[in-house]
C-alpha cells in the first residue's frame, strides 16, 4: 500500500520535477561556464563539472534542494594554483586536483571531522562569504572592462584598472554592465532563475548584431563544444604539489556545504 502511494506521489510531482530540472539545466550552462572562467581553466571544465556533479549528486545524496557543484570560493582557489597553468597537461592536472580534493573530503568524513565545524561561528561564515564575493568581483574586472591590469594580486590590479579609465574597452564594459542589469531585473519577473539565461542570450545576440568584434567571446578563449569530454587519468607527477591546494579546497567546500545544510534541513 505504501508502495502504491509513493508511486502515485511521484507521478503527481513529475511535471513539477521535470520543469524544475529543465530550468536548472538551462541555468547551469552559463553558470558552469562562468565557474570555469572564474577558476582560470577552460570554461568547459566548469560546465562538465556541473553536469557530472548534478547527476552523481542526484543518485548519492538525500537532499531535494541542494545542487552538487563547485562553489565560487573553490573556483577562486583553483585559479591561484600555479601548477595547473605550468603543467604540461593542464586538464590532467585539474583531474588530479579534483580527485585529491574528493579523497580529502572522504577522509574528513571517515574521521568524523564534521563535528569540528560547530566551532565555526555564523559571523565567520558571513565574513567569509562576503570576502569571497568581493574577491570574485575584483578578479573579474579584466573580463568586465576588457583591460588586463598588471599587479601581484587582485586588489592591486583592481586599483590599477580604476586608475587607467582611458584603457578600458567601452563596448566590453557596456555589454558586461547590461548583462548584470538584465539579470538583476529579470530575476524579479516571472522568469526568475531563467532570467540569467535570457540575459546571456540577449546580450550575446546584441554583440553579434552590432558587429562588435572587439568584445571577446568564448571562441576567443578556445572554447569549442564538440561532445562529451573524454575521461583522463590523474597526473601522478603533480600530486605532491597539489596536496595542500586539495586540502584547502576540501575545507572550503565542506564549510560552505555545512553552512548551506544548516539553513536547508533537507
Please, could you describe this protein's structure?
The chain is an all-alpha fold. It has a domain at 71-169 and 215-263. Helix content is 68%, strand content 0%. The protein has eleven helices and no strands. The protein has helices spanning 2-38, 43-60, 72-79, 82-86, 90-110, 122-139, 141-145, 154-163, 170-186, 194-210, 239-263. Helix 1 runs antiparallel to helix 2 and helix 1 runs parallel beside helix 10. The radius of gyration is 20 Å and the shape is globular. The two termini are 25 Å apart.
Distance between the termini: 25 Å
Instruction: Report mean pLDDT, rounded to a whole number.
Output: 85
Structural class: mainly alpha
pLDDT < 50 runs, ≥5 residues: none
**What would you report as the Rg, rounded to the nearest angstrom?**
20 Å
- Discrete helix count: 11
SSE arrangement, N to C: HHHHHHHHHHH
Summarize the amount of helix as a percent range.
Answer: 55-70%
Strand content: under 5%
Global geometry: globular
Number-wise, the strands total 0
How can the largest sheet be summarized?
none
